[in-house]
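> call design_seq(struct)
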């Protein structure tokens, strides 16, 4: 079972992002504040769940959370400031949109750009350890999937209904055949996709 809190002194928000390794579309991020008593036996890292489970859990998260918010950084912003900084920007925008100011921030991963003067903790694989981060991963993933589905009808040649912008073989071949759409990240490699981040 995932842990409900990292610490007990401050009001805690979990943050995560989705779409970092995609060739197209924004990177999405979410922030979630749960009551400290919140528990759920199925809630877990979004990658461990089916699409149906994620959407069912989204309703529960949005009903039970004290506050939640979803935000994004565009493909243009990703090209301008790089995917790492764009991920931080999306998380900061989500935190900005919370109806309750977080007093402590939990972030999935090992890097984060400080948000205002609020203390934070980076937790590797945090989406499989803390409920608020798992919830944020689900919101970021489902809202991004919805966004890519809406774009897919404008550009069916890229198969975004299936790949959501990730670098599948079919997606890469479509880019080589049809060229880049306005929604593609121009700084990402198509034939040798940039799937990991450099922290240098």
């Amino acid at each position: 079972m995932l842990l409900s809190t990292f610490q007990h002194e401050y009001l805690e928000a979990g943050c995560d992002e989705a779409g970092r390794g995609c060739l197209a579309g924004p990177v999405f991020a979410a922030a979630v504040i749960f009551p400290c008593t919140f528990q759920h036996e199925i809630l877990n890292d979004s990658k461990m769940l089916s699409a149906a489970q994620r959407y069912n859990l989204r309703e529960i998260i949005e009903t039970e959370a004290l506050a939640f918010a979803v935000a994004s950084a565009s493909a243009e912003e990703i090209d301008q400031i790089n995917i790492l900084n764009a991920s931080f920007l999306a998380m900061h925008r989500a935190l900005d949109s919370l109806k309750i100011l977080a007093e402590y921030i939990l972030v999935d991963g090992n890097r984060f750009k400080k948000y205002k003067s609020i203390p934070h903790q980076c937790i590797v694989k945090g989406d499989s350890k803390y409920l608020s981060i798992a919830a944020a991963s689900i919101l970021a993933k489902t809202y991004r999937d919805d966004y890519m589905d809406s774009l897919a009808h404008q550009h069916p040649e890229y198969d975004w209904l299936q790949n959501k912008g990730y670098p599948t073989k079919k997606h890469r071949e479509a880019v080589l055949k049809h060229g880049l759409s306005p929604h593609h990240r121009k700084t990402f490699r198509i034939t040798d996709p940039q799937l990991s981040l450099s922290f240098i």
